[in-house]
């Protein structure tokens, strides 16, 4: 770009064809102006030089240019949503320079104008994804796509934006990616990169490798029968079908030569011979390995646990089946976990009755604290959810093999046609027991800031790992959140390519119940006080979690974009003191 001087400016932002929205890609990826070559070794890749077309918009009919404001309409540090007639853009002024990018977060469509602008990036107000304002590139997650960026020019003190209509309409851009150079030459039973697990961590790892120009074989394997999907939706919108929540369409994997083996169960990893051994006896050699197997839900251990219509929600089929069985029937949910509470909220208006059984006295007490937990509990009770607290299930009773009643230790008997179990999970790492890969006493894989295990070339990511959290003085923590899994996958990929990149992201999560969201950033484990601003009864509040004198986490409801603001402050390495929020 040309940089902005006082008033007479032109900012030219060139969008290579492949950088445009994924909808524009031809199915075989032929649109790519870039050719990738491997530079001899297994590790170093370079993009072949390619002259950038002088006109980035190949089809003049696809281009719109509009005057959107006067140069003095925006102060430094301000954002404005502007309409170009056939779509909107986000206009940003920072350090005297104007930038224009897509106005909606590609993750779930949040209006970025309501987000937080800080040091060259904008953070989504809903779920914390971050985008570079100069390039539109995604820098923190959730979500996979970047923002389209548009040309800005200034003439006679007016600001003009020139944009592709296609990009204005899709509001997303898939980063340029390499392809595999010679799939046909491969031995089926060996791959350069093997990824075990096809959740967010596995997919982002594969995509990042391709974005960085890696053009060797990538194989992902999963026990699931589906391509990677948006797992948080299983408990938030339970009647979603697999294709509705797919993170990428089938063609995407074909275009970028990311092979996905579904319904494949890895039984062991032989690190000496760099081989994964599958349950059916198939073996696959690898050069680099990512283990991103996530966790396995805990089952109930009570009498009658094998009766029909008792579910852990693990797949779209589980979620769909529960909705079907619960409609106009009696539902019992065991565990006031995020999953348990989201399922209770989703089923409350569909089922005849929803009962929730929990050992603690208040839902989310350990996570959000007692006062926030009580406010949430009240919201649930006003939506006809009945709580049975400080008790657990002693027996599941059946009639003709199907669930009929849930008996509690308190002696209470609940009518139940379907039961959902949300009592936590354990890392899915049992298959690594004899491998030599370092696993802690709880079963988590131990990694460093580069997502490396103790074994060279073996990386791990997502819900199954503990890693050093910069935010809490590099304390080893497990953060089983969707956003964090994305970032783990990205860091692992960059370090497979020897970039020496360390993780420093701030954990960010959200939960959605009865059309309301609680957003949360930081790591509140071991908090000793909660400072609450706003009104808990009205469910319009922000809660700051403190440990001695320092704010370690924040949660809010109907108070955007406070959580994204705090996340930005923490990610800049600044400390927020308790007295600053009191």
Automatic annotation (TrEMBL):
Key words of the record: 2Fe-2S, Apoptosis, Electron transport, FAD, Flavoprotein, Iron, Iron-sulfur, Metal-binding, Mitochondrion, Oxidoreductase, Transport
Function of the protein: Induces apoptosis through a caspase dependent pathway. Reduces mitochondrial membrane potential.
Single Gene Ontology MF annotation: 2 iron, 2 sulfur cluster binding
GO biological process: execution phase of apoptosis
Annotated source species: Phaetusa simplex (large-billed tern)
Compartments where found: Mitochondrion
Gene Ontology CC terms: mitochondrion
PROSITE patterns (alphabetical): RIESKE
Protein family according to the UniProt entry: Belongs to the FAD-dependent oxidoreductase family.
Primary site of residence: mitochondrion
Protein name stated in the entry: Apoptosis-inducing factor 3
Gene transcribed to yield this protein: Aifm3
Record domain Rieske: where: 66-161
PANTHER family: APOPTOSIS-INDUCING FACTOR 1, APOPTOSIS-INDUCING FACTOR 3
Pfam families linked to this entry: Pyr_redox_2, Reductase_C, Rieske
């Amino acid at each position: 770009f040309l940089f902005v001087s006082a008033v007479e400016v032109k900012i030219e932002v060139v969008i290579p064809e492949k950088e445009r929205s994924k909808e524009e890609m031809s199915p075989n990826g032929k649109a790519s102006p870039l050719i990738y070559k491997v530079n001899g070794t297994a590790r170093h890749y370079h993009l072949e030089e390619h002259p950038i077309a002088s006109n980035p918009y190949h089809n003049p009919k696809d281009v719109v240019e509009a005057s959107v404001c006067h140069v003095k309409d925006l102060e430094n540090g301000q954002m404005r949503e502007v309409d170009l007639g056939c779509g909107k853009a986000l206009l940003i002024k920072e350090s005297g320079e104007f930038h224009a990018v897509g106005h909606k977060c590609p993750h779930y469509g949040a209006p970025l104008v309501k987000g937080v602008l800080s040091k060259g990036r904008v953070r989504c107000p809903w779920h914390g994804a971050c985008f570079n304002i100069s390039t539109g590139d995604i820098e923190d997650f959730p979500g996979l796509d970047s923002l389209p960026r548009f040309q800005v020019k200034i003439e006679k003190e007016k600001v003009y934006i020139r944009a592709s209509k296609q990009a204005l309409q899709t509001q997303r851009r898939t980063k340029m990616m390499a392809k595999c150079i010679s799939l046909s030459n491969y031995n089926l039973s060996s791959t350069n990169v093997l990824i075990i697990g096809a959740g967010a961590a596995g997919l982002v790892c594969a995509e990042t490798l391709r974005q960085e120009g890696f053009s060797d074989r990538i194989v992902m394997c999963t026990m699931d029968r589906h391509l990677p999907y948006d797992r948080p939706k299983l408990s938030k919108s339970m009647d979603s079908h697999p294709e509705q929540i797919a993170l990428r369409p089938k063609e995407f994997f074909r275009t970028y030569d990311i092979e996905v083996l579904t319904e494949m169960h890895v039984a062991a990893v032989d690190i000496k011979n760099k081989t994964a051994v599958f349950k059916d006896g198939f073996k696959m050699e690898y050069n680099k390995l990512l283990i991103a197997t996530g966790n396995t839900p805990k089952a109930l251990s009570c009498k009658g646990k094998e009766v029909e219509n008792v579910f852990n929600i693990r797949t779209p089929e589980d979620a769909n089946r529960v909705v079907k069985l619960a409609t106009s029937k009696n539902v019992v949910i065991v565990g006031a976990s995020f999953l348990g509470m989201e399922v209770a909220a989703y089923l409350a208006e569909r089922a005849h009755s929803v009962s929730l059984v929990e050992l603690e006295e208040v839902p989310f007490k350990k996570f959000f604290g007692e006062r926030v937990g009580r406010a949430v509990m009240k919201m649930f009770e006003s939506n006809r959810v009945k709580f049975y607290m400080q008790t657990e299930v002693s027996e599941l009773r059946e009639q003709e093999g199907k669930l009929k009643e849930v008996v509690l230790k308190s002696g209470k008997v609940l009518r139940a046609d379907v039961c959902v179990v949300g009592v936590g999970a354990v890392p899915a790492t049992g298959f690594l027991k004899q491998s030599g890969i370092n696993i802690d006493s709880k079963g988590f894989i131990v990694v460093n800031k580069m997502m490396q295990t103790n074994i060279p070339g073996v990386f791990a990511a997502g819900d199954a790992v503990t890693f050093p959290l910069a935010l809490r003085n590099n304390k080893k923590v497990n953060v089983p959140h969707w956003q964090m899994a994305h970032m783990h996958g990205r860091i692992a990929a960059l370090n497979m390519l020897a970039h020496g990149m360390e993780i420093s992201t701030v954990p960010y999560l959200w939960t959605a119940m009865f059309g309301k969201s609680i957003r949360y950033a930081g790591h509140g484990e071991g908090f000793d006080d909660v400072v609450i601003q706003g009104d808990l009864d009205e469910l319009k509040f922000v809660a700051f979690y403190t440990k001695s004198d320092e704010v370690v986490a924040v949660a809010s409801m109907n108070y955007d974009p406070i959580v994204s603001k705090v996340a930005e402050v923490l990610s800049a390495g600044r400390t927020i003191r308790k007295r600053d929020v009191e």
